[in-house]
Amino acid sequence: MDRRYPRIRFQKKLDELKNKVDKMGQATLKAYREAFSTFIDYDAELVKNVLEINKKVHGMGYQIEHDAMSIIAAEQPVAGDLRFIEASIKVSAHLKRITGLAANIAEVARHVKDEELPERPMFDLQRMADIVDGMVSKSLAAFLAKNMNVARELHRDDDKVDDLFDHALKAITKSMFQDKESISYLIYLLFLARFLERIADRAENIGDRTIFMITCEKRDHTNGKILGK
Amino acid sequence: MEYRIEVENLNVYFDELHILKDVSLKIPKNAVTSLIGPSGCGKSTFIRTLNRMNDLISTFKLEGNVLLDGGDIYNPKVDVVDLRKKVGMVFQKPNPFPKSIFDNVAYGLRVHGINDEDILDQKVEESLKSAALWDEVENILEKSAMGLSGGQQQRLCIARTIAVEPEVILMDEPCSALDPISTTKIEDLIHKLKNDFTIIIVTHNMQQATRVSKHTAFFLNGEIVESGLTNRIFIEPEDKRTEDYITGRFG
To answer: Which of A78, A82, A226 best probes binding to B when mutated, by most B CB atoms within 10 angstroms?
Structure first.
């Protein structure tokens, strides 16, 4: 007894799935960084590139779903393996959405490319973007390393993003009142703020999914209560 | 929760070999409980302890309590034939008697003194219907059971077991010699039978355990490492050894 059979082929399939999520995450992060960068300093080539990555990431997402279903059908995984596979499907869906939001940022960038943007909301948006960048990296790292502590940090980060979102909205509307002519392009700063806030939510979702994968518990983090058990 | 069987601090020895070590387990009434674990971990010894099949082995020694409906089945006053009527068993390999289909099912009833032909006819039909075999054999009841397929033979053995109206049915890998379709039929049957009987099934098929049972106990080296709701054990096992076994990391 106690002889160990490591299920080499099965383990290899799980490692491959993990690598694919990692690659998809890196592509998502690249799309996000390039999208924000082109919003600040417009570059038509970069916009094209982000849209290309978005398309590629969609394909990667379907491949992950396909691989996950094949593993379930062939290996009938249980326990931690099953939870990892289920989480991979969910995480890839969040990554797909984050890349889609990055593509939205890139698409609206051309509307502000020749405009003088007001300092105050841009300061808040830049800070938001930095935190969101960290959140996307952290969420991916937490999932791949099954790290609960890093996953939990995402709740605090998301609160910071929400506060900055409120500040940015106030600053943008203030600028709109000061110069009504600017409304036609400042509206796109509102879109940017909204897209960043949505990306932060998705990164937080990946953190929650990571915690669920590890503990099999979903908590309402406003009151700490366990849901759905 | 109501329990049909309660096993307390059970130790089983064959000569010097300590096979079951301080095993305690409660088996809920009218539910299916799966016993899983690698070969040689004591699962079969455990279920054979529940209807005193191990008594037939001269070197068998037991300590602890095995209670059926609160009564100790190892009490010297217990009639073993009567106990085995209450705790029936289905084996890994279908083992019909070399008799007709009818006589196989009627066998236990006759042993227990039922010889009235009308009653026998009625009980045989009821049992074969319960075992989901009646439609396939109603016109060939007098033919030899040995001519049935493996899956049919196993359902016949189940019909033979339930004919004497046991309280508990022990199943020792009942599908391991069957093809997938016959396996599905037996699993559907287990789902149906749990309404009337308490079922304990030993299985090496993890997916079968998740499909048929509400409760699962994981045996390793003669001990129960973990037991509880099947869903919990297969999604979030508490013990690393359980996780390693059910995910196929050792076995």
So the answer is: A78
